[in-house]
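Not sure how to ask, but would you mind making up any protein sequence you like and the tokens describing how it folds?
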Amino acid sequence: MIKKKKPVLNIAIDGPAGAGKSTVAKALSKTLGILYLDTGAMYRALALKAVSQKVDINDDTAIKRLLGATRIDVKYSGGAQRTLLDKKDVSDKIREPHISRAASDISAKPLVRYRMVELQREIAAAQDTVLDGRDIGTYVLPKAGFKFYLTARPEVRAHRRYLELTAKGAEDITEAGVLSEILQRDENDSKRAVAPLRKADDAVEIDTSDMDADTVVNDMIKIIGERG
């Protein structure tokens, strides 16, 4: 008797900046013992190279050349994802505030999203994976077995992001400034031409404003267990 191959488990987590997607996705993948793919890091890596080389993000020809000359890899070390840009570890550099803004801009480019989505789908098709982003359940993996949409009040998201940045030594930033950037990014992400930020029709929405990461993860595991 031929044993049927177990279907690949894909869990999509979407939501705006500061909703806790990455923290929850990492914890969920660790609890379930499956791969976590930080899709945002891939866009950040490309943005870092564009900024470093002073590439005009509005120049599609230049962006196309950049994509053709760029290699982005993901490896895992100590249970954490490390992002490699042209074989160099840029995991810390891509978290700087100005790179976050550039990543939002460059991710809105259709040709960039098409290429990154190809890579993400290849990874997800090969193994059980948790992916987080802004269009995972609606565009990248519309057939994912489980979809979640995390959200939180803007001021809560800004406070979280502010604490994260200051803990990493960021200077000359204010919570009001971070809130302004988050609101701008919300607008950019929800109005972009390709796969804008929105909740998938079949996604479970969770407001994390008054929840810690462990509580969110426990709720997700319960839902996965009930449906699984």
Observations:
- The longest helix spans residues 110-126.
- The radius of gyration is 17 Å.
- The mean pLDDT is 90.
- DSSP finds nine helices and eight strands in the chain.
